[in-house]
Amino acid sequence: MIESQFNRKNLQATILLALVGLAPLCFSSFRRLDILIGIGVFLVATVVFLLGYGAWLKRITVLSDGLEVKSVLLPFWKRFYRFAEFDYSELCHTRQGEVLRLIKDGRRVVSVSSFLYQNYECIWQSIAVKGKEQFSVRDTAEVVSEYKLSRIYIAGGFFGLLTFLMALMPLGQYWEGKDVTWGLILFSLLGALFFGTLFLGVLFPCQRITVWQGQIDVRRLLWPFRVKHYQLADFDGCYYVTAKHDYFGFKEDEMRWLVKNGKVVIDMQEDVYRNFEALKNATQTNFLGQLELTTIQIMKYSLGKKIQL
Q: pLDDT for 155-172, tens place per residue?
């Protein structure tokens, strides 16, 4: 039996960077109202982050026939997987080190990172799951995308709530009997516009993708009434994209772009879909290359700019 051991230095650095990033955002948003409100928001944001990070961190115990995974924050919430349940294992290299991913039903169920775990090598050598084999296309298998609901409910709800609060800020001042100045109204509008843009940015990449017999149907979450139909043979090929925005030590996000005439037509992101691996396997086409881009570059290409290497 092997139990995971966290790399405390990396965890402390991650938490410190997150708090440093939260502080100016909270205080700058409320500097015109009251410093106590800024402190209160910072404390609430800190608690929410620590709770979320603690729930995300997993303790892993490797046994002879499987492994047990449980949350650090919720140790009673645990799950046991037998090695035979996994489809395959995948070893990836990031700037923070190696990541071993265990795939089940096209989903990345368990991830073991050398950045987080001090005894990563022992865990990796003890997990008896076969490596990834060459995929052969199954024309009769239908694959339907599955959203990561945490992205929609947590991130989308958070930015949606901030947008709502910023828009109602002048109304709150009016109810308290205080003067509503043009500066406050402008600050409220700019804040609502900023957080509203982030809210739409969270939901914009979410698409319901159905792949069957070489045909791809795409329906956006923000505009579900319009369905676009594509044939896999219509695309010039695909790019594998790595996003360079892992500031807090999280794993790098992967994307798969289906390209036609040098422009991105379908964007599939790892942090949006639970069954990202199944979508990748179902949309195998001509490989055009692997890209490592910044967030700004990804936004430009996703919005229709022609890819220029």
A: 777 888 888 888 877 777
Angstrom distance (rounded) from CA 259 to CA 234: 9
Q: Any residues with CB less than 8 A from the CB of 191 and at least 6 apart, and which?
A: 29, 162, 166, 169
Are residues 151 and 157 in contact, defined by beta-carbon separation less than 8 angstroms? Answer: no
State whether CATH 2.30.29 applies to domain 206-302: yes
The DSSP string of 244-255 is ---TTSPPPPEE
The percent of residues above 90 in pLDDT, for the chain, comes to 7
Most confident of 59-63, 149-153, 180-184: 59-63
Is residue 106 within 8 A of residue 143, CB to CB? The reply is yes
Q: Tokens representing 183?
A: 């500066």
Alpha-carbon 6 to chain mean position:
22
The β-bridge partners of 58 are 71
Domain ranges of the chain: 2-126, 149-203, 206-302
Coil, strand or helix: which one is 115? coil
The length of the chain is 309
